[in-house]
Amino acid sequence: HQVLRIVPQSDEELQKVQELQGLEHLQLDFWLGPRGLGLPVDIHVPFPSLQAVKAHLEAAGVSYSIMIEDVQALLDEEQMEMLRSTRQLPLNTNTFNYEAYHTINEIYNFMDMLVAENPNLVSKLEIGRSTENRPLYVLKFSTGGTNRPAIWIDTGIHSREWVTQASGVWFAKKIVQDHANNEGVASILETMDIFLEIVTNPDGFAFTQTTNRLWRKTRSKHSGSICVGVDPNRNWDAGFGEAGASSSPCSETYHGPYANSEPEVKSIVDFVKSHGNIKAFVSIHSYSQLLLYPYGYTYTAVPDQQELHEVSAKAVAALSSLYGTQYKYGSIITTIYRASGGTIDWTYNQGIKYSFTFELRDTGRYGFLLPAKQIIPTAEETWLALKVIMEHTRDNLY
Amino acid sequence: DIDDVGHKYYLELELEDVLDKDRTVKCTAEVLYHLGSKASAPDVQLTVQGELRSTEEADKEFYNRIRSLEKELVAENIPDSHGNVPPALEPIHLLAWVASGYVTWQNSTENTKFHLAQVKHVKQVKRSDEDLQFDYVLLLHEMVSQEVLPWEVTVLWHPQRGARVSQCQGPGAGN
Question: Can you give the residue range of the structural domain that contains A8?
Fold first, then answer.
């Protein structure tokens, strides 16, 4: 294995490097992706692909240097783990391993099993397709009625925040269990529906598994740039393009060419508008251990600030009660940073009063790479906070 | 606010020992962020009020283990995608943290918040003197911009002399 460094000096060279990104069978790991002329690109190349990559570059006259020679391949724990998990798919949602991180296919398979096991409670909706044409699935939990007031929860909008998708899977199972045992959210399901989108950014998620574990954005390519992806949490039509997002396509907070340019975002916008009766909207991220309400794009307080603050206090207290995990809470702009074009700013402005964002564990020790053994504790404590929000919504319908 | 100089912060901190959660130590610190965009590191003065736990034995054990390796240690992706760190690599991870502290200090402003996201790669370099040398590629996550960027850092370590960063290079241009 070697790590090659290329500093593209022309658009042709940039293009050649980009071509390499598309060749998935080479199993290249881009430590530093292409960002522009004169900026280095670092690629970790596994031994079997070395010749092909060098030939590709040399044929195009692209010079490269060998940054690291002979990268010893430590038995990659994670590769072994993934291999072990492709052996047998679990037979049902009781044998599914909630203590581990899963691939997209395993999660989609889980969703189908959950629906098959609980056809009177759970259904799967496809609300759109991603840039790379992956289905955008939402699970609907309903005991009947027509267009009941509903709660929306999404996880995984930023693909590298793996504890969120994993928690979403746990939440899905938990809802079903509560209903079966007539406890917990069973009472909420008597009068309300719950919508849960677990893999909100499937293209990004796939990319974190094949190429770059720390990829955040979507995988869209907009004309005029070699950089890929839009920050789906800056692409909503609330203060779009204002301070708190970047206009550079190479930035992690790139807002995109226009609001709702990303199908992952547009599909939710369309769903929310056509449903028309969503009363609470929770978008889940990691990390930092925060519970946030709008706004992120302006210092102006939302009219419901006091109530949202009180609900947050209660939710955070419930969360902490389980394992002592400490959370802070407040509006986005006063608690974390200024961010424009954000999800819950848009949903709040649509009239969804109970709009919240979570930043789950931890506070930086592992960050995005949270150990799998923390998945269940994280999901359990977060669920207590979610229940506070859901119950308050049910008891204060508007 | 100090006119023509910058912003000074007076801090009271409580440090928690990551390896011994019940152990805390109080500190005070003064941090001065300089005015202007000249990109100079903030001045930091720290006073530790109390004692830090002795790590003499563990240090010695680690030192001897690395010194006796036949082939230089090489590793990557610490933690791995699932957050795992093999126990034998835990000290390497901790040392990376120290190194990332240096990078954070050198690159901090009042509008940055850095965390070590992952040790992308580490290679031991055998030396003729008594120090251990590790060449790291560290991925640092900056919270406000959300960028994750690689930093090449060379760390020297010795049980008595502690850790020193001897070289540090940021993404793209040098540092």
Answer: 2-69
Length of chain B equals: 175
On whether the B1-53 domain is CATH 3.40.50.300, my answer is: no
Q: Is residue A232 part of a domain?
A: no
Beta strands in A232-297 (DSSP E): 278-286, 290-293
Where are the domains positioned within chain B?
A: 1-53, 54-174
Q: For domain B54-174, say whether CATH 3.10.450.10 is its number.
A: yes
Q: Other C-beta atoms within 10 Å of A123: how many?
A: 13
Nearest CB neighbour to B146, from listed A3, A81, A253: A253
Residue with the larger pLDDT of the pair A76 and B8: B8
Same domain, A36 and A121: no
A359 labelled catalytic: yes
CATH number, domain with residue A275: 3.40.630.10
Most B CBs within 10 Å, among A3, A69, A77, to test the B interface: A77
Q: Residue A71: its chain B contacts at CB < 8 A?
A: 74, 76, 121
Chain A CB within 8 Å of residue B45 CB = no
**Do both A195 and A61 map to the same domain?**
no
Q: Which helix (DSSP H) or strand (DSSP E) does residue A388 occupy? A: helix A375-395
Structure token digits, residue B129: 């003197």
A224 in a domain, yes or no?
Answer: no
Residues A58 and A192 in one domain: no
- Do A161 and A287 lie in one domain? The reply is yes
Q: In angstroms, rounded to a whole number, what is the distance separating the alpha carbons of residues A18 and B162?
A: 43
Structure-token pair, residue A221: 């390519």
> CA of B21, closest CA in chain A: separation in Å?
13
User: Are B80 and A100 within 8 A, CB to CB?
Assistant: no
A77 contacts B86? CB cut-off 8 A = yes
**When comparing pLDDT for B82 and A50, which is higher?**
B82
**Is residue A56 domain-shared with residue A179, that is, in the same domain?**
no
How many A×B Cβ pairs under 8 Å? 89
Indicate whether A343 and A308 sit together in one domain.
yes
Which are the contacts of A321, defined by CB distance < 8 A and separation ≥ 6?
A384
Identify all chain B residues contacting A42, using CB atoms and an 8 Å cutoff. 150
Q: Using a cut of 0.90, tell me whether the model's pTM lies above it.
A: no
Q: Which of A58, A359, A380, A381 is the catalytic position?
A: A359
A71–B82 C-beta distance less than 8 A:
no
Chain A, nearest residue to B123 by Cα: A71
The Cα–Cα gap between A34 and A44 comes to 13
Q: Out of A140-144, A222-226, B35-39, give the one with best mean pLDDT.
A: A140-144
